[in-house]
């Protein structure tokens, strides 16, 4: 204002223009990053290994932005592996081109100096998310945090913490993860479990040779910290706790939530949870630990990662209402199945596959989003069934007869702005198991969940349509179901998949094709010029 009024001599139009420019530049910044995909030599647990990283760090660099900013990340791929980067939980409105899952929204960035610039606006969301490679298992080592600060002058809806820290939980293999996945595929069986879990890239003192590799967070007595916990593990759901300290959960998947006090939190791969911790115990050193959650006897790496916390509740604000769709235009029920299928090229003649409504998703050779907007025919069918082919006692005794799966690329078409309810139903095909499902391009409301079979006559009456959690990744309980609702207001092709990478590899995935609307801001943006080719 002072700048404008000091130029009293300028014509009115000019000063108004100047003011507009000032306001615009005060609101939206452009944040630029360069990501170099490189091989780095890292040592952990007595082993040094050469692995793919961004800019040589593990976890990779944190991306900072403020709500409303434009973020431009130029990725240059200097390794042999093909790569893409996904901004997990960013809605990318109308801009699927920047979303990143390989062969869904883009062809990979080719090894040997291929490059692509992810250019997107961060609007209508704030909080802590993460980015990761979205091709095969590369995200094991290629991931990092995204911080979206609230707009200037807008406070958090909880007491302001004195400081913050990132806690990124990861999974470590001595071997190259590509080789681990390939071996699993060749055998048609579950790939080798990891050798360690990590906290901020370090396994902690319970592992041999890892004294140097312990993360420690310095805190001061009496201060309150916000810990941004991210589960970046590839296949393991993890518990996290801090000895002697209570955590207050205030944000999940970059959505403010009703505060909840807990001594232990559980996160599925893909989920982020922010907790407030007050350093109010007797000064000393306290363990932080991350250990797998296992409710069914599948092979898992049960080793706990540890780190050290070292001494040196507010209601959801009216600003962030839960806008839950009340009426539902499309009811979807997807069953989650595991099967053993014949496989001529596999060593054992058969292999494990996973399916939704008996469909094992086949990855296309060109990106679905590209095929859709480029009018390429024959890449996919848009007829993914809204219900399983047969009704059966989903969670009853193991049952496999008559439930053969097909390997095809089928998408579900959603009308622009329709309200959708999706019930994800686990089954006892082969075995029950829990599955964290992630939807790209959206947040959704978790309106209900339960054990056993979903009952469309009775269960909806128990839904929470008032203040359900809003997130981008949700667990489907082993032998149970989870119901989510969202409004299909983001046109494009959006991936839905289990965030356990081993299950994604087996085909536990599909995609929605959300049609363009008729309004001015209701259709997908045109593809960027440097979009990689397949
Ligand atoms: Cu965090 Cu499709 O991914």
TrEMBL record:
It is found in: Secreted, Extracellular space, Apoplast. SUPFAM superfamilies: Cupredoxins. Its EC number is 1.10.3.2. CDD domains: CuRO_1_LCC_plant, CuRO_2_LCC_plant, CuRO_3_LCC_plant. InterPro entries: Cu-oxidase-like_N, Cu-oxidase_2nd, Cu-oxidase_C, Cu-oxidase_fam, Cu_oxidase_CS, Cu_oxidase_Cu_BS, Cupredoxin, CuRO_1_LCC. Keywords: Apoplast, Copper, Lignin degradation, Metal-binding, Oxidoreductase, Repeat, Secreted, Signal. The keyword Repeat applies. It catalyses: 4 hydroquinone + O2 = 4 benzosemiquinone + 2 H2O. It comes from the Eukaryota. One of its GO terms (biological process) is lignin catabolic process. Lignin degradation and detoxification of lignin-derived products. Belongs to the multicopper oxidase family. This is laccase.
